[in-house]
Amino acid sequence: MDMLIARNLSVSAALAERPVNVIENLDFSLAPGRILGLVGESGAGKSMIGRTVAQLLPPLFSVSQGELLFDGQNLVTMPADARRELLGRDIAFVPQEPMSGLNPVLTIGQQIDEHLARLQVGNRRTRHDRAVAMLDAVHLPRPAELLSKYPHQLSGGMCQRVLIAMAFASRPKLLVADEPTTALDVTIQARIVQLIAEMQRIDGTSVLFITHDLRLAAQICDEILVLYAGRVAEYGPAREVFARPRHPYTRCLQLSNPVMSGANRGLYTLPERMPGLQALSEMTGCAFASRCPVVREDCTTTPPPLVSLAPAHRAACRHSEATPGIVAPQPPVETAPSAAAPLLSVSNLGKTFRVGRGFFQHEDVAAVKSVNFDLNDNEFIGIVGESGSGKSTVARMLCGLETPTSGTIAVSGRDVTQGDTAARRHLRSYVQMVFQDPQSALNPRRRVGSIVTQSLEATGTGNHAARLARAQALIAEIGLPPEAAFRFPPQLSGGQRQRVNIARALCAEPRILIADEIVSGLDVSVQAQLLNLLLRLRRERGFAMLLISHDLSVVRYLCDRVLVMYRGEVVESGVTADVFDNPQHSYTKTLLAAVPPDDPATIWRPKTDSADGTLPVEDPA
After folding, report:
1. How many helices (H) and strands (E) would you count in the chain?
2. What's the pTM value of the predicted model, to 2 decimals?
């Protein structure tokens, strides 16, 4: 018997006029010991399915029809107390953001003990021993010591492993993993994925794996459900769906993803955005019609049926035969870096932090050690490496947010290392930073037009009308409508907020952009829009950029050269294609081996560091 079955399931939102289905007529099944991948853009309904399983729907949302059967029991009609007994015991969850799943004021041991007590596992001593065994099972180092640590003392990957250990503590029948690897380093991602697969095989657990990483989904999932605006776009065996996609939406998502092998190709960018609730309420035809590159007139009249095209492979498209004709655009026009004197020169750059180790005790930790490189005008350089390798510390020193312990930083021939007033002014005129999280980087109480021109306002340049005109010109340049200048950041999507972030940096007309993980966690379609935007702006404006990223395919697509950092040092550098296609350092090889292949038919085996094939460990220090 299947572990999880959805039959004609619809979830509706109560609007002022009438309810609107955010999930409509959903049908799928998940067998014991299998992994079902849910893929699609933000707003497609992936997480809403997980919330429905847990009956944690937001206010005004409810199941309007159909069944959701777990092990033969209907979760929709089940009493609340019976459902609570299932959650955490038979149904487990691993959230996207590990810090949101752990209590910051309780130690790891206290949180595991509380969880095991709810599962009625023995006395305190028995639970302690079980906790140590759980942490050891997920290959965490020194598990007994970790029990006394707080979440902030562990890395993101370690916190995610703690949550996985807690999820599998009860040997659940179903695991819902909601973007468990988003924004993690590629090596940590490989460890987490390998760990989930390992625990799943041991316990025979069914897994609902929610992700926007198509390469990853093709490798670890048995079946794939592609969602669009709460509707099934395509459903079938994972390798079949990605090797021969039959729905235009699936094909467009694939072409939005940069490749890791072969020649670079252009990235397909989907126009507009997924329809909102109001647009869905007024829609009569295919929900994807307004963005579809092969749309026909009959696509806009009635919703398409879910048609069987191959054994167990179905797609909701009347013209699926046209899908293979959707091709990637031409590769981006390459812009040659300037051969003149370097715009930025970094020589023997180092940074040491003093870390407290108890009362009156401290230790000096070298975060960056003797880093050397030049950045030429109009050149894009990528910095890659795991968390803790020193990437962001280098960026903060280049922006003047940290003072180097050793070495020099020269911008356009002038030494700005010490950061005196004149040096800071010179640095600001050349360098601007684009931060990783636009939600925290943009003031939610200021309108977009005011945010974009903050640098002009700070220096008293121009009056309000002049700054507004400048803001609207920049907003048009980054591809947003003029009325966006009068909106607040919460009224924009994540991709739109990141565009505002870029526009704010460009307002000062810098010669160098420092971009720290600016596409981390974004949908592949939004990511493609931002990458193409940066390449277009480079051609039109002519600036250099230092890109920090854990996504190696993004670096391969965007950057002329790459620096590979490990424990504060640059261990390999060179032309991006040369380094990625023919790596020389063992650490670079480990990073590249942790990236799932482009071809879904290729069997991916994440490379581990140890000879016995176990997962490499991280030191909580």
Report:
1. 22, 22
2. 0.88
